[in-house]
Amino acid sequence: MSMVEDAQVLPVTPKAQKRTNRPTSRGRLIFAKLARTPRFWVGTLTLLVIVLWALFGLAFYAYNATSQDVMSMNTAPTGNHWFGTDEIGGDIYAQTVVGLRKSLLIGFVVGPVSALLAGFIGALAGYLGGVWDRVIVWFIDLLLVLPALYILIMLYPLIKGGSWVIVMVYLAIFSWMILARVIRAQTSSLRDRDFVKAARFMGVKTSTIIRRHIIPNVSSLLIIDATLGVGAAILTETTLSYFGFGVQPPDVSLGTLLSSGTGAATTRPWLFIFPAAILVITVLATSLAGDALRDAVDPTSGANRD
Amino acid sequence: MIGFVVKRFVNYFILTAIATLLAYVLASLSLNPAQRYLGRNPQPSPEVVTSILNGLGVNPDIPVLERLWIWLSNLVTHGSLGITVDNQQVTDVIFARAGVSLRLLIIGSIIGAVLGVVFGVWGAVKQYRVSDQLVSYASFTVGATPTFVIGVVLMILATGLNGLTGHQLINFSGEYTAGLQGNFLVLFGDRINHLILPTITLSLTAAAGYSRYQRSAMLDVLSADYIRTARSKGMSRNSALVKHGVRIALIPMSTYFAYSFALLLTGATVVELVFSWHGMGEYLVHSVQQNDINGVAGSVMFASILVLIAGTLSEVVYAALDPRVRV
Lengths: 306, 327
Known about the structure:
Number of strands of chain A: 0
Helix content of chain B: over 70%
Oligomer: heterodimer
Largest interface: A-B, 45 and 52 residues
Structural class of chain A: mainly alpha
Order of helices and strands of chain A: HHHHHHHHHHHHHHH
Strand content of chain B: under 5%
Distance between the termini of chain B: 7 Å
Number of strands of chain B: 0
Structural class of chain B: mainly alpha
Shape of chain B: globular
Radius of gyration of chain B: 24 Å
Distance between the termini of chain A: 38 Å
Largest sheet of chain A: none
Radius of gyration of chain A: 25 Å
Helix content of chain A: 55-70%
Strand content of chain A: under 5%
Shape of chain A: globular
C-alpha cells in the first residue's frame, strides 16, 4: 500500500510547493492571462504612446494649430511641416495633435461615463425586477429602434454654435443602451444569490445593495465596455463632426480635420491620410486592449476545443 | 411558429410606431422652420411666414401634440406625410429615393452577412492559427475605421487605379453618370459600376462586426458536447461542423442582426453622403439642414419601417433555426 502511494507522489521541488500553497486571487489570474496576451500589450502601449504624443507632440514643434505659413502653402510633408500644409498654409501636424487631444478627451470621458450609466440603469432594472424591469427594458428597446446617429443629427440644431462639451454629453446619453441590457441580464441572476438576499433581509437600502453588491460583481463587464466605449465614442464623434453635426469650428477634432481634408483627398492626400491613420490607430488600440480584457475576464474563452 | 412571429411583430410594430412619433416631436422641438424665411432680404412680413408655416403644418405657435395629431390623421386618412419646404409631397420624395437606399442596404447587408459568417466560422475553426489571426486583425482594423474613411480611401485608390490604367474603370461619384446615352445594357452597366465602391464600403463595415460575433458564437458551439457526440457516432468533421455547428451558431447571429441593423442604417447613411447618392439617409440629413420637419418625420418613418421589417425577418430566421420556439 505504502509503495503504491510512494510511487504516485511525484518529485516536487520546494519552490513549486510554495507556489501551490499560496491562494491565487482572481485579479492575479486575470493579470497573468493579460500579460500573456500580445494583443493587450500592443493595445495599451500604443494607446500610451498616443496619449503622450497628444500631450507633448507640440512641445518641440515650430508651429501651432492656428499658425499660417505663407511661404509654404499646399506643400507635401517636409522636414519643416511634418504632415504638410493646407491651402492657407496651416500646419497639418499641429492641427492633428490638437484634434487628437479633443477626440481623445471625448473618448476617455464618454466611454467610462456611458459604462457607468449602463451599469446603474441595467443593475436597477435587473435588481428591481417586475414592472420596473419591464418599463426600463422597454424604454431601452425604444431608444435602440432608431440609430443613435439619426437622433444626434436631429438634435444638431440645438447644439449649433455650442461648445464641444455638449457633443460629449449627447454622446454619453446615447451610447449606454446595449451594455445596460447585458448588465440587466447579469443582475437578474445575481439578485437571487444568497449574499444579495442576506443584505436585503438585513434591511440594507436598495441603492446601497446595488452599489456594494451588484456593481462590483458586474465590474469586469463595465471595465471592458468602458475600454471599448472609448473607441466607439471616438468613432461616433468623428463621424458626426465629419458631416458637420458634431464639434463645431473653431474647435478642432479629428472629425472636423478629416472633413476639411476630404475635398482634396485625391490630389493632396496628406490632408486626409495622416489624421485618418492616427484615428484608426487610436481606435484600434482601444479595441485590442478591450478585447484582450474580455478574453482574460471570461473564463470560457480560449478553452481547449476539438 | 406563426404565433411567435406575430407576437414579436406586434411588439416591434408598437416600438417603431412610438419611436416615429417621438422623432416627430423631437424634430418639432429642435428644428426652427421659420429660420429659412427670416434670413431673406428683404425680410418677409410675419403674416407671410405664419401662413407658410401654417400651410406646412409646422407653425411653432400650435402645440406640438396638436400638430402631431394633424400629421397622424393626414397620414391615416390621406396617406400623406405632408409637404416639404420645396412644396413636394414627402411621400413622392420617399418613393423617388427609397430604391437608392434599398439597393445599397439589401446588397450590402447580404454580402456583409455572408462574408461575416464565412470569416467568423473560419476564424473559430482555425482558432489561434495564422489565418485566424489575420482575419481577426483585419476585422479589428476595419471595425476601428469610420465608414467615411473607408469610403474616401477607396475613392483615392480608385482614382489611382483609373490614372494608372488611363481608363475610367471605376466610377464613384453619384449613383449613375448624368447624361449618359445608350441602350438598357449600357445604363445598367453604368449603375453597377457606380455601385461597386459604395457596396464594398458598406459590406466591409458590416462584415467586420458580424465576423467577430460569429466567431465567438461558433467557439461556444465548438466546445459543446453534441459536436463531440456527432463526431463519435462517425460523422465527418466537416459535416458535423456544418450541420450541428454553424446552424446552432447562426441562432445568436439572427438576434444580433436585428440589433445591428441600426448600425447598418448608420453605415448606409454615411455611404450615401460620402458617395453623394440621393437616398433616404441623405434626405434625413438634408431635411435637418433645411429645417424641414415633415421631411425629417418622413425619413425617420422610412427608417422605422425598415427596422420593423429587419426585426421581424430576424425573428423568422430565429424561429426557423431554433426548433424550440416552434413548439
